[in-house]
Design goal:
The chain has 10 helices and 13 strands. By secondary structure, it is an alpha/beta fold. The strands form 3 sheets. A 6-stranded mixed beta sheet has the order 7-8-10-11-12-9. It has a 5-stranded mixed beta sheet with strand order 2-6-5-4-13, with helices on both faces. The radius of gyration is 19 Å and the shape is elongated.
Length: about 250
C-alpha cells in the first residue's frame, strides 16, 4: 500500500512533469481514497475503463488521456458527469499524464513503441523534443514496414506513400502527432510513423517523397502507461493491471 500523495509525488519526479507545457493537468485529477494497493492502467479515462477498474476493485486508475483538457467549458454534464459520478461513488483516484508520458526516455510511449518495433532512438525533434528519430536495422520498403507495424499493433495502418525509396531513417511520435510530419522531414526521415493522419499529410508525402504511416492513436499509445505501472508496482509493492478498452482509432 502507498499513500496517494506519495504516488503522485513519485510520478511527478519520474516523468519530469514540470518541464512540459501541456493541454491539460498532469497528475492527480480526481481524488479518491488515501491508501492505494491496486492500480488499474489504461489509455483513456473512459467510462468503460472506469467500470472495469471498479470490477477489479482498484484504488486508483492511471491513464494517458485524462478527463480535463484546455478548451472545455467546465460543465459537469453528460459523459463527464457519468465518469466523475462513478469515480467518486467508488472513491477511486484518477492519475493522468499526457506529454510527460509520451516523452520519457525509457518508459514513455515513444520509447516503448520503438522498443516494440526494434527501433533505436538516436535523436529528438519537434516541439518540446517529443519526436524520435532513428535508423532501421535493415533498409526496407514501405509495404514491408507497414506489414511489421500492422502485425505488431494488431491494426492495419493508413499509408501515404512517398517516392518509393528504400526506408532507412525512421521518425516517430505516438498519438495525434501528424503535425510533426514537416519537422520529421526536416530532420532527415525517410518515413514518419504516428497515430493519425489529416488531409495535408498525404500531399506532403507526395511532394517531398517522405512516406507517412498512421498506425492508430490508441494503438500506438498502449505501451507507456503499462511500463510506468510496472515501475510503480516494483517501487511501491502495489498490484497493477492493464485493461485495454477496444478502440478502432
Amino acid at each position: 500500500m502507498t499513500h496517494r500523495n506519495d504516488l503522485e509525488r513519485h510520478l511527478g519526479q519520474l516523468l519530469d512533469v514540470a518541464r512540459f507545457k501541456d493541454y491539460g493537468p498532469n497528475g492527480l485529477q480526481v481524488e479518491g481514497r488515501e491508501q492505494i494497493g491496486t492500480l488499474v492502467c489504461g489509455v483513456t479515462a473512459s467510462l468503460g475503463l472506469i467500470e472495469a477498474a471498479i470490477a477489479a476493485k482498484a484504488d486508483a486508475i492511471l491513464v494517458h488521456h485524462g478527463l480535463f483538457w484546455r478548451g472545455q467549458d467546465g460543465r459537469v454534464t453528460g459523459w463527464m458527469k457519468q465518469r466523475l459520478a462513478r469515480l467518486l461513488a467508488h472513491d477511486i483516484n484518477l492519475y493522468a499524464y499526457h506529454l510527460p508520458l509520451d516523452a520519457h526516455a525509457e518508459l514513455g510511449n515513444n520509447a516503448q513503441l520503438g522498443r516494440l518495433l526494434g527501433w533505436q532512438g538516436e535523436s529528438r525533434f519537434g516541439e518540446q523534443d517529443l519526436g524520435w528519430l532513428g535508423s532501421l536495422t535493415q533498409a526496407c520498403s514501405l509495404t514491408e514496414l507497414a506489414a511489421q507495424i500492422g502485425s505488431t499493433l494488431g491494426r492495419t495502418p493508413v499509408l501515404a506513400p512517398g517516392d518509393g525509396r528504400a526506408l532507412r531513417r525512421v521518425a516517430w511520435c505516438t498519438g495525434g502527432a501528424q503535425g510533426y510530419f514537416e519537422a520529421a522531414i526536416a530532420a532527415g526521415a525517410d518515413v514518419f510513423v504516428t497515430g493519425e493522419i489529416s488531409e495535408p499529410q498525404a500531399h506532403y508525402a507526395a511532394e517531398t517523397g517522405v512516406a507517412f504511416i498512421a498506425a492508430g492513436h490508441h494503438a500506438t499509445e498502449r505501451y507507456g502507461v503499462q511500463a510506468v505501472a510496472q515501475q510503480l508496482a516494483a517501487e511501491f509493492g502495489i498490484r497493477q493491471q492493464f485493461i485495454d478498452i477496444a478502440n478502432p482509432a
